Amino acid sequence: MIKMDVINLKNRTVGSQYVATELLKQMKRKPDTVLGLATGNTMIEVYEHLSELININQVDVAQIRTFNLDEYIGLSADHHQSYHVYMNERLFDHNKGWNKDQIHLPAGDASDVEQECLNYEQLLNEVGPVDIQILGIGENGHIGFNEPDSSFESVTRVVDLTPSTINANSHYFDNVEDVPKQAISMGLASIMRAKKIILFAFGSNKKEAVQQMLNGDITESLPASILQRHPNVEVVLDDEIYRFSN
Ligand code: PGA
Questions:
Q1: pTM, 2 dp
Q2: Within the chain, where are the H helices?
Q3: Which of 108, 163, 189, 216 is found 20 to 30 A from 126 (Cα to Cα)?
């Protein structure tokens, strides 16, 4: 088994700055970098720092390709809770030069969602591999929207969200009933094809999941545990989770 690199970066702010800097370095090194991007609360400050770093370093983003992990089914690209809007508001709108043709998120409002999943996976295969994939982790150990018991062989597909995920994400919506019950998500096998993965977690609600990911069995009941099999994963933690998992 390969040991994952785990670093204690004290808190959310320092961790976010680190993750943003790693992305920036990769983008400077390779102007047509393929980035695997994530959303959620975890990445808010990462994108704040990254968009600022892109501007002050005058990085040309015109050739950067991006693939987001997931999107809610039923939400259009201009729906204010969609991950399309999240990405525009948190990152893409802050820099000149992003080429919208090279920014990819699954279309949650596609008329044929099964076909959309096939197309997304195919595009990921054609354009990839992803150079750096960033990941958060769910309290239940999900990565992307690959909920417990997702197959390690899974690729982009329609997934049912668990009550735990619906509940965790409900504070972004007016009420819990408004949270979509399904999403399109890159699969675990799709994620594992990335050349490098950086998983970032902070806050006490993530400590059990991270502890199991690092030290537990490799099992589909904790999807993030598959990362123990990836040769190039960095896990960035706050002090609390780091201490708990060591
Ligand atoms: P969060 O979600 O960043 O909103 O905590 C992370 C995840 O569920 O992967």
A1: 0.97
A2: 12-29, 44-56, 83-90, 113-127, 163-169, 188-192, 207-215, 239-245
A3: 108
